[in-house]
Amino acid sequence: MKRKINLFALIAIAMLFNVSCKREPHSCKCDGVDNTVSVFATGLNNPRGLKFGPDGRLYVAEGGIGGKDSSVHICPDIQVAFPIGPYVGGTTGGRVSWINSHGVRTTVTDKLPSSKANDIIGGDIEGVADVAFKGNTLYALLAGAGCSHGVPSIPNGIVKVHSNGSWDPFSNLSAFLLTHPVAHPSPGDYEPDGTPYSMVQVGGDFYVIEPNHGEFLKVTGNGNVSRIVDISASQGHIVPASLTYHKGNFFVGNLNVFPVVDGSSKILMITPGGQVSVLATGFTTVLGLVFDDQDRLYILENTTGDQPGPTPGTGKIIRLNCDGSREIIASGLSLPTGITMGPDGKLYVSNIGFGPVSIGGGQILKIGVKHCTCDEASTHSKS
Fold this sequence. Notes:
Blueprint lengths: L6 H14 L8 E2 L6 E9 L1 E6 L5 E5 L6 E2 H4 L13 E12 L5 E12 L8 E2 L1 E7 L2 E6 L14 E5 L5 E6 H7 L18 E5 L2 E6 L4 E5 L5 E6 H5 L4 E7 L2 E6 L10 E6 L5 E8 L2 E6 L5 E5 L13 E6 L5 E8 L4 E4 L5 E5 L7 E9 L4 E2 L10
């Protein structure tokens, strides 16, 4: 049974959206889009975070294909706990692709690290987790690097990617995570190098969510890393994974631990100063967040229902409206891992983002979203 929505969370929604959200009263006219889901692109390797670049192209981070070098033989004293570890990794195989308006994929680079977890748990692959732009320059977030993933020469962190496919290191998140322990790590689910998952660029700086430790980090324009807030200190080990920024605040959704308990995930609102509040509850395995131009929040759920683990065909997109109501925008998605809003007003989703067929079988879905316009008299936004 789905958990009841917290009354205080609804109050928080009302307070936030009364300030910034465009209303949708009955006098609004909508464009009639029916939220049709279509496959936009195929042939991706464990697709994860995705964003449109300043050139109008869609850029996709890909976990890649894994590696072969065992972390046991490289750094026996710095291991990911069994049964998730040990990992096998390599310095190549992680990929970033761009996709044109016809859905044709082109490799930007496939020379980034990729690693694979223990086959006992299905050999989940980590590599490039997300992408972001600063001006016209592409940056990639690494999650499959570091000695504990079998890649001792490259740490987890942010790298600057050049148009010819080469790259330069920009920031070292592995070093920060190893030297800045959080309040409530999970000993049975601990990765020394972390698994950074989501990144946004705001005001020339980068902001990163790291789910395994529960960190929300800031990386300045010169690559220095600092902690915005230790999410585990107030929330425990909830596996915060998704991040977006909207009108002065950050919003974080959590995956939570397995087995899946339907309705056990939530949306946090975090100020730039690190104050954490719960915006909404009652979601499940959240791996993506994005706002539209009407200030409505779209929540990507990887798996729904009470499940022993990630389950194909159960993913959903939920829209949180201005009044706190919720709508199912899409369902039946198969292990979706990332979401963004396109300049065309449509949602783009990484689908088949991990699992047995995700090498070469990863997809990008395109989903129409109903857009409403209102008379000036019936729409308000307080400043």
